[in-house]
Structures are given as structure tokens and as C-alpha cells.
Inverse folding.
């Protein structure tokens, strides 16, 4: 994600540079170039020094992303005072990740923190000669289209489209109401079209939502919590609060308040995992068993992000997401599983993970997800493809540990019977299971049924689960499976998906 955000922001910076040549954005070309050089150099230097001191791998992508965000938030300049102010904002942004942290995780969005402090200090008159402050010059009509197109790509990848839409609707709506209230006070007339134009095309809401509200590392883990944060930031950004006669509480300062709200939802940080053992659970899938050092909280069906630092990471970086196999009741033991996949051209991450020996300490940077069973006793349909069964193992193990019995049917798809992972654990839960494999699995228990070698499609799913319309469907597998089953899934009570495409 660092690389994706970096490429997206880099493209926006190039577009802005071209537009500046024709005076279509406020900064001049030399100001954009000089400002970014200073921001990138200062942030990279501070990050490198701090991460070396803390024995952490240097993430140059993270440094460059913060520099690019600040480039669009702060007022660029090419003179001494402006460049010093930008350098100060960059240094504060970087330092905030290490000095203002909770259990190893930074609390505030770094760019928002750096921009807010420099702007407030300048407004208070402590450093009147600072030649820059937060201007959000990116909020201009000519940048709206590029920001929207680049942003949609990023939001789709991090699954934050809905959260940002909530933010935008509330921010724009609040801004329009504010203009309607203030227009008579200022002796003008309110025009809805003009108010909407200002709120949508002449405001930084779009950029703020995509690159700050949706930022994963400062977001709470649950979707409803993310909606609350988006709503609060939207209100504060849409109607800035004036603090005395000095400065307003809007934009980047609204984001900082949202970060504090997110912290109250999820007081979590970087948790260390000690690798205890690895084993093949199928010919193509491995399971890693860890012991948790610290406090780790998760709900059955959620996933974690595992950081595996290594030299020369490829374009996808050093972090990946894994559904958690074990149940919360199993802690401090925690298990994940993954498929070996492409053995000829594995990713740098997969090579590094394969080299991890027992005793290796890795970091979990967070747990997230809404792939959670509905409350109550509503009937459930689980459909898993291969290693996609992992979140269901966690959920069924937790129900078993709690002594809870639910009306659940599991449909388990695999290429061959030997690829049915966690079979013994699933059999022990007593959940009725329908197996779709080419060959017949041996020694099936009474509550397991083989689908006679047929391929799972929408028709086959309806035939296997006759009461599908009454069930809440949960699907974990590749996008192709979701597409194949779509006609049948439309008939279910609800559908929750956990699509994955490998790593």
C-alpha cells in the first residue's frame, strides 16, 4: 500500500507540476520542486535516524508518501522562511510517529500533525517569520478529477470507499449548511449551486478523505467505528471552529481529533509474535504457530497485518494480511496459514517468510475486519475455497469453546481431497459440511457429504443448500468464486465476502 499510495501521489504531483506551468494552480513550478526536495530530504533523514536508533527497517516509501501529502497540504515556497517552515513541518510529522505513539503505533496522521503544529505556531505569532502554513491548495477545480481517479484506485484496494463517502457526504452537507447560515450574516444571498461548487470543487475534502481519513494505520478496526471517525472529521472539516481570533479548528486539525476518536475505539499497537513452529497442513499450504508477546485483541473472522522486514523488498513491501486461524480463546497461541503459490517466482515477502525459523520475532501492526458472524441465532452459510477456510476455523473454534450451537452449513471447495486444510478441527465442531473436490475424501464422518466430484457453481450451491434463502452467507475465496456463485448468493438473506487474490 505504501507503493500504491506513493505512485498515486507522485502522479498527482506531476500533474500539478504541469498545471503550474500554465498557472492553473497557485504554486509556481520552482516552488513545487524546491518544497518537495526539502520535505523529502528532511522526512527521510529523520525517519532513517529514528528507525536506526529503534532498530527498525527504514521504509523510504513511508517517508516519501508523507512528504507528498505535506506538499499538497502546506503552501509551497522557494524562499528561506517558507522552506524552513516546510522542513519543520516535515520533521514534526516524522517525529510524531515515534514520540506520540501507543504501544509502538503512531496516534496521529503524521502529515496532519506536522501541518497543524506549524500552522498553529505561526498563527500564535511565536515564529512570525515562518513563510508557510496549511493552505490545502490541492482543493481546486482542476485537481478534482485527478484526485478522484487516483483516489478511487487506492480506496478500492484498502476497502475504504464507503468510509470516505460517509466523510464526503457529511463534510459537503455541513459546508453547505454553514454557507446557508453565514450568507445572511455577511450580507449576501445563499445560492445552493454556488455552495455545492465551493464544497465539492473548491475544498480539500476529497484529498483529505482519500489520503488522511482512509489512512489504514490510524483507522479503527471495525467499519462502523470508521464511519464514526469519518463523520466527526466531516463535521469539523465542513464547519471549522474558530479558536479565539487566532486560528480555526478545521481540515488537518479536524483529522487529529478524528485520530483521537479512533484511538478510543482501538487502543492497540504493534504486538510481537514469536514463531514457535511451521508445518505443512496440505501439500501446498503451511501453518505458522506463534506465541503472542503483549496484548492482542481480535474477533473471530478478523485478519491481521504481519510485518516481515527483509532486504530489497519488491513492489508490494514488507507487510501482508492474513486471516487468523486460531480463536480468541486460544490466546496466547496464535495461528495463521497461507498457500505456497508460485514457487518459481515467489514474492520477496514470501521468500522472507519461508526463511523465518522458530524463535523469530515478527510484528503484528494491527487487526481489522468485519467478516463477523451475525449476532443471535440466525442461520449461516459458510462457503470456503481452499485456504479461504481460515476465518471459518477461527469462528467455529470460538463457538465450540463458548459451548454455543448455531445453525451453520459449511460448503468447502478444494481441488483435491488432500487440499482440505484443518479437516480434523472442522470435523470436531460437528458443523454439517458439503465437500466439493474432484476425488472423494476418505473416511468422511456422518455430518460431512461429498458432492460427487461436481464443480461448485450457483446451481450446485442452491442444490446443496436447499434453504439458502433463509441464511446469511459468508464467502471466503478468490474473486472468481464469488462471481460464479453470484446468482445464488443474491437469493440469500445477506452476503458478506472475504475475497483474496494471493500475495
Amino acid at each position: 500500500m505504501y507503493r500504491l499510495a506513493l505512485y498515486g501521489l507522485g502522479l498527482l504531483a506531476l500533474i500539478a507540476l504541469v498545471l503550474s506551468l500554465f498557472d492553473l494552480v497557485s504554486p509556481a513550478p520552482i516552488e513545487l520542486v524546491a518544497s518537495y526536495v526539502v520535505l523529502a530530504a528532511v522526512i527521510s533523514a529523520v525517519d532513517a535516524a529514528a528507525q536506526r536508533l529503534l532498530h527498525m527497517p527504514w521504509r523510504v516509501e513511508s517517508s516519501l508518501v508523507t512528504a507528498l501529502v505535506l506538499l499538497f497540504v502546506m503552501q509551497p515556497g522557494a524562499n528561506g522562511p517558507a522552506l524552513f517552515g516546510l522542513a519543520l513541518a516535515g520533521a514534526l510529522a516524522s517525529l510524531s510517529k515515534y514520540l506520540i505513539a501507543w504501544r509502538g503505533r503512531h496516534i496521529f496522521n503524521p502529515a496532519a500533525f506536522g501541518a497543524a503544529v506549524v500552522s498553529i505556531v505561526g498563527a500564535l505569532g511565536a515564529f512570525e517569520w515562518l513563510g508557510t502554513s496549511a493552505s490545502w491548495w490541492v482543493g481546486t477545480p482542476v485537481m478534482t478529477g485527478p484526485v478522484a481517479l487516483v483516489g478511487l484506485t487506492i480506496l478500492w484496494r484498502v476497502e475504504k470507499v464507503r468510509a470516505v463517502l460517509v466523510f464526503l457526504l457529511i463534510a459537503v452537507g455541513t459546508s453547505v449548511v454553514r454557507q446557508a447560515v453565514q450568507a445572511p450574516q455577511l450580507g449576501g444571498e445563499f445560492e445552493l449551486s454556488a455552495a455545492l461548487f465551493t464544497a465539492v470543487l473548491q475544498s480539500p475534502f476529497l484529498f483529505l478523505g482519500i489520503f488522511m481519513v482512509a489512512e489504514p494505520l490510524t483507522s479503527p478496526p471495525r467499519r462502523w467505528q470508521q464511519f464514526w471517525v469519518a463523520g466527526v472529521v466531516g463535521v469539523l472539516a465542513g464547519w471549522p471552529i474558530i479558536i479565539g481570533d487566532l486560528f480555526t479548528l478545521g481540515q488537518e486539525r479536524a483529522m487529529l481529533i478524528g485520530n483521537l476518536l479512533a484511538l478510543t475505539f482501538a487502543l492497540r499497537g504493534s504486538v510481537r509474535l514469536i514463531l514457535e513452529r511451521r508445518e505443512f497442513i496440505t501439500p501446498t499450504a503451511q501453518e505458522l504457530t506463534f506465541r503472542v508477546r503483549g496484548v492482542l485483541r481480535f474477533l473471530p473472522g478478523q485478519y491481521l497485518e504481519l510485518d516481515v522486514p527483509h532486504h530489497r523488498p519488491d513492489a508490494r513491501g514488507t507487510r501482508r494480511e492474513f486471516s487468523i486461524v486460531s480463536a480468541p480463546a486460544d490466546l496466547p497461541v496464535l495461528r495463521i496459514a497461507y498457500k505456497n503459490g508460485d514457487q518459481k517466482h515467489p514474492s520477496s515477502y514470501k521468500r522472507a517468510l519461508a526463511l523465518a525459523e522458530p524463535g523469530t520475532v515478527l510484528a503484528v501492526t494491527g487487526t481489522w475486519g468485519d467478516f463477523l458472524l451475525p449476532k443471535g441465532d440466525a442461520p449461516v452459510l459458510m462457503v470456503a475455497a481452499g485456504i479461504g477456510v481460515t476465518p471459518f476455523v477461527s469462528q467455529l473454534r470460538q463457538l465450540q469453546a463458548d459451548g454455543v450451537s448455531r445453525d451453520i452449513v459449511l460448503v468447502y471447495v478444494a481441488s483435491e481431497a488432500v487440499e482440505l486444510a484443518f479437516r480434523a478441527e472442522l470435523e470436531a465442531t460437528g458443523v454439517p459440511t458439503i465437500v466439493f473436490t474432484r476425488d472423494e475424501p476418505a473416511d468422511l464422518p456422518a455430518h460431512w457429504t461429498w458432492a460427487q466430484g461436481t464443480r461448485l457453481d450457483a446451481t450446485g450451491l442452491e442444490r446443496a443448500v436447499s434453504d439458502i434463502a433463509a441464511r446469511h452467507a459468508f464467502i471466503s475465496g478468490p474473486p472468481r468464486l464469488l462471481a460464479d456463485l453470484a446468482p445464488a448468493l443474491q437469493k440469500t438473506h445477506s452476503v458478506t465476502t472475504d475475497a483474496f487474490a494471493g500475495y
Notes: The chain is about 45% helix and 15% strand. Residues 312 and 348 are 8 Å apart (CA to CA). The chain has a mean pLDDT of 89. The first strand starts at residue 101 and ends at 102.
